[in-house]
Design a protein that fits this description.
The chain is built from 20 helices and ten strands. By secondary structure, it is of the alpha/beta class. It folds into three domains: 126 residues; 151 residues, ABC transporter transmembrane region fold (Up-down Bundle), CATH 1.20.1560.10; 228 residues, 3-Layer(aba) Sandwich (Rossmann fold), CATH 3.40.50.300. The strands form two sheets. Strands 6-7-8-3-9-10 form a six-stranded mixed beta sheet, sandwiched between helices. Helix 3 runs antiparallel to helix 4 and helix 6 packs antiparallel against helix 7.
């Protein structure tokens, strides 16, 4: 039985928590060195006039404070190590969630940002005041030992500072939440604008888009300013209250010393002890906002990752038979209730080229994405060689599936690494896949050939060049199932026939080819055309489809003029 994520985290971080508790105990006990030193100096040294006693007390205090410094350094180190352990534990789960495609639209960068926020809070040591808080009663007890009146003042002060912390949370919670939502939306908008730069510059949309982004950013900043204003107000109240309490403690101590109830050294010692007792609470109030953001990030990740198992251990299966069976298979866009394509059954054998046709929005891309395993079906099952595609471990299944989306994005790596799917295969297999896709000549013409780095930060490639490399990647390893979404859309008149030839050769080797296309040259080579219309699928031969789509009185919506 899988343990809840919170329990798994507690188990992984337990050694760090135990070590932190031990060093926190030592650190907080050693904070009593200063008040005890002051007591001894005022009550013993000044009374006796012994220089030797002062020297030995000072030496002992310095030595103990050196141990305190080492304990503090150890606590910081433990927090940093815990942050790394936390990230090492969560990141595989985040990528497993990204691979599984659960929880709606992919949110890899957002989840990684949340994990980074928590790790940053741990490494910054913002949890240390919480580790110190359980020891505040020790200092309050020490105040009561000095005199009950001083202990009562300290208890009242602790209650006041804690009340300020609660008020700060109640006041800033909503503003902080709305601020983060608005600022995240503005950042996502900026990322989307970056991808559309060419179109925006061409149509003069940059300034208008800037205004829209600025409005979204301003909304987030307004909420952020509200939260910061309230946070600063309560921080100021907390610190002012501490200073007032220090005055009360010193004044009460002086009054008690005048009546001979406490010694003069106890006045200074009580002031130091009160500062130690209220210090953790004051630090929590000061860092409350960052702690709340880290906690909110944790709750979001916990909701998203609670059912994720990143265990990638599996037994590799042999190459499946070239047979794709769809059994009462329906397609649903993630988040939608009604199926885009209603349940249907179909069987394809190796050697077949199946063209998907239909109007825009009919579901061709969604069907291919579902068959690739990126999305779950609405109902039914898809089996490749008898194995259910969506229950087959992606890392193993992917060896036998090639997929080319409409807009090919390449990984930030070399062309060779992109083609061999980061498998570090030999150059012969990479070059063979590129030659099969008709991309070899294009690649060797680049400055660094197969070693050219592409993707974000790499060499700029045209859409057609990316399409050809994407096809080579899909053909790498001679997959059983090839899924292609408008594969000739970005190719020129010379490259498109090479791609079609590569698909025909792949089918001749026993692959099953499903390609969404309006290209007549590709449809003519198909064994079957699957027409998607109104949520249903109709099968026809290429000749029948082309006659219906382009002949007099064409009856296929969205196909008139699309082929031919």
């Amino acid at each position: 039985m899988r343990q809840p994520l919170s329990l798994q985290v507690r188990t992984r971080l337990k050694p760090y928590a135990v070590a932190l508790a031990g060093f926190s105990l030592a650190s907080n006990l050693l904070l009593l060195v200063s008040p005890l030193y002051m007591l001894q100096v005022y009550d013993r040294v000044l009374g006796s006039g012994s220089t030797d006693t002062l020297i030995w007390l000072t030496a002992l205090a310095v030595m103990l404070l050196g141990v305190y410094g080492a304990s503090e350094a150890a606590r910081r180190r433990i927090c940093a190590l815990a942050g790394i352990e936390f990230e090492n534990f969560l990141v595989p789960k985040i990528f497993a969630k990204f691979e599984a495609g659960t929880g709606g639209a992919p949110a890899l960068s957002q989840d990684l940002a949340l994990a980074g926020r928590i790790q940053g809070a741990l490494q910054a040591g913002t949890i240390l005041p919480f580790a110190d808080l359980p020891f505040a009663p020790i200092f309050l007890a020490a105040l009561f030992m000095v005199h009950p009146l001083l202990g009562g003042l300290g208890l009242i002060g602790a209650a006041i500072v804690f009340g300020v912390a609660v008020a700060a949370e109640m006041t800033t919670r909503d503003a902080s939440k709305y601020s983060q939502t608005a600022l995240s939306g503005a950042n996502e908008m900026a990322a989307g604008l970056e991808r559309q730069r060419s179109a925006m510059v061409a149509m003069g949309l940059v300034q208008a888009a800037f205004g829209k982004w600025k409005a979204a950013k301003r909304a987030g900043q307004d909420f952020s300013l509200q939260a910061a204003k309230a946070d600063g107000k309560f921080t100021a109240i907390s610190r002012a209250a501490r200073q007032v309490l220090q005055i009360f403690i010193l004044g009460a101590g002086a009054a008690l010393a005048l009546t001979q109830d406490i010694s003069p050294g106890s006045i200074v010692a009580s002031s130091i002890i009160l500062a130690r007792a209220l210090g953790p609470i004051d630090q929590i109030v000061g860092g409350w906002r960052s702690n709340v953001l880290a906690w909110r990030a944790w709750t979001q990740l916990q909701d998203r990752l609670d059912e994720i198992d990143e265990d990638a251990r599996f037994t590799p299966l042999p190459r499946p038979a070239s047979e794709l069976a769809l059994e009462r298979f329906s397609v649903v866009v993630p988040g939608a209730k009604e199926p885009l394509i209603h349940p249907f059954s179909y069987t394809a054998k190796g050697g077949q080229i199946i063209a998907l046709a239909g109007a825009n929005g009919a579901g061709k891309t969604t069907l291919l994405q579902t068959l690739s395993g990126a999305w779950l079906p609405g109902s039914g099952a898809a089996r490749l060689g008898g194995r259910t595609l969506h229950e087959w471990v992606s890392a193993d299944r992917g060896r036998y599936v090639g997929y080319v989306p409409q807009d090919v994005e390449l990984l930030p790596a070399t062309i060779a690494e992109n083609i061999d799917r980061l498998a570090a295969a030999g150059p012969d297999a990479v070059i063979q896949a590129a030659k099969t896709a008709g991309a070899h000549e294009m690649i060797v013409a680049l400055p660094d050939g197969y070693d050219t780095r592409v993707g974000p930060g790499g060499a700029h490639l045209s859409a057609g060049q990316r399409q050809m490399i994407g096809l080579a990647r899909a053909l790498f390893g001679d997959p059983v199932l090839l899924l292609l979404d408008e594969p000739t859309a970005n190719l020129d008149a010379a490259a498109a026939p090479l791609l079609i030839k590569a698909l025909v050769e792949a089918a001749a080797r026993g692959a099953i080819v499903l390609a969404s296309s309006h290209d007549r040259r590709l449809i003519e080579r198909a064994n079957t055309v699957m027409l998607l219309r109104n949520g249903s699928i109709l099968a026809a031969t290429a000749e029948q489809y082309l006659k219906l789509a382009t002949g007099p009185g064409a009856t296929i919506p969205g196909s008139q003029g699309a082929v031919g």
